[in-house]
Amino acid sequence: MDAAGRKMKMMDAAMKTIAEKGLESFSVAQAAVRANINEALVYRDFGTKENLLCECFAQVNHEMLDAFKYEEKLKTKDESSVLARAHSHWMILFAKFIESDYKTLFYQQYRDSSYKMREAEKQKIKQYDVKTIFAQSFVQFLKDPNDIDYVSAFIIDGMVFFAKMIICKELPNTEETYEKIWELMNGGLQGLTKKII
Question: Which of 54, 67, 34 is nearest to 134 (CA)?
């Protein structure tokens, strides 16, 4: 197996281990055993545990962006057109988060962890991820461009929270459930967009 294949196998094992056991108890050794890869090779490939986790997060972000295939922003001030587009985009991403069950459980834990905060601080840049891409659909409706942070946080946090409930079988995995969750999200998005329409 080449280095690229070994890294992908290790990242997959790390995300599965975290989804099952939690981020706080995660060790590189656990995932190395699961992947049947020598732990020394893991450190050679990634350098540190933090780098491994950061690359896992980047991989999930990349997969979500690929699933999204972001379309051109709407050139309209019509709220119903924007919300129809948002509904379509949301359904694509929400289904992808549920389909990628262990990756979603990892993603949620990493996003809320001190690892991500330290990495963002170390890089001294705002991370550009799926939440920002999605929220750009609404920027033209917002008085303050900084509102994109609120919109994107609302969308991604709601999406991941409800996806986790479905993955953990706390809610049924049905189209009706998706639509009910969208209705809740839609109410919040309409509240955000109505302020200048």
Answer: 67
Which pTM value belongs to this model?
0.77
Please name the helix (run of DSSP H) or strand (run of DSSP E) that holds residue 91, with its range, or none.
helix 79-99
Residue 174 structure tokens: 């049905």
User: ∠120-121-123 over CA atoms, to 5°?
Assistant: 65
Phi, psi of 26 (to 5 degrees): -70, 140
Percent of the chain with pLDDT strictly greater than 90 = 43
Q: How far apart are the first and last CA of the chain?
A: 56
CB 55 within 8 A of CB 7: yes
Nearest-angstrom CA–CA distance, 187 and 197: 15
Indicate the domain borders of the chain.
1-47, 57-193
CATH architecture of 1-47: Orthogonal Bundle (1.10)
pLDDT in tens, 31-61: 999 999 999 999 999 999 999 999 998 888 8
Three-state SS at 70: coil
